[in-house]
Write a structure and sequence with these properties.
The chain has 225 residues and is of the alpha/beta class. Helices cover 53% and strands 15% of the residues. The chain contains eleven helices and eight strands. The radius of gyration is 20 Å and the shape is globular. The protein starts with a strand and ends in a 9-residue tail after the last helix. Bound molecules: SN-glycerol-3-phosphate. SN-glycerol-3-phosphate (G3P) binds at residues 6, 26, 28, 31, 132, 134-135, 166-167.
Amino acid sequence: MKLCIDHADTIQIRRIYENYPIDGVSTNPSILAKCSRPPYEVLREIRDIIGPEGELFVQIISPDEEAALQEADRILKETGEQTLIKVPSTAEGFRIMKRLKTEGIRFIGTAVYTVMQGFLAAKCGAEYVAPYVNRIDNMGLDGVQVSKDIHDAICRNGLDSGLLAASFRNTQQVLELIKYGVKAVTVSPDVIDSFVRNAEVDNAVIRFTRDFEGLCGEGKTMLDC
Ligand code: G3P
């Protein structure tokens, strides 16, 4: 399963990349707007941090097929051929997806709130579909269950796609989908940090250090004894 960062702040991205096993970065227009900087400047910096092989997800804006295709070309030129184009899973979006498939451009169906949207995006050839787990929860539905149902619909219909589940507010939502074996999740830095925020773990490590220093002296490590 791939683990990506759903964020565009390059300081945070660099920190999370250094600490955790991360496969890529996803952005959307709202995430880029929070940076208040020119989008391509931010995206090129992200590409430098994650390297040519890192997964980068960038969304097109135009609902018009020809304009969307030009946007996709520009995004790939600016950020590298490995970048995946995010397309909202709407009626106009499916039309754009079918065209991208014909052109051999990798893409992902985003803004997925229902199983049918996810199924249709996968059927259009999306490499990933992105259900918004927490936003679905906030509609009074079960975002984890909708995501599992999309995963099952893709597998049972033999479609060459998988989830890039997004919009998480807590570790439990992510963990449920890790256990289910979905293709990928994309998570904000604060939720990634909460994966291992645990006072018991911190206490165990402090105790190991204290015991070892009791044995060999303050500040000593396995290099000094
Ligand atoms: O990429 C979609 C995702 O960023 C939505 O997350 O946190 O805005 O619900 P959120």
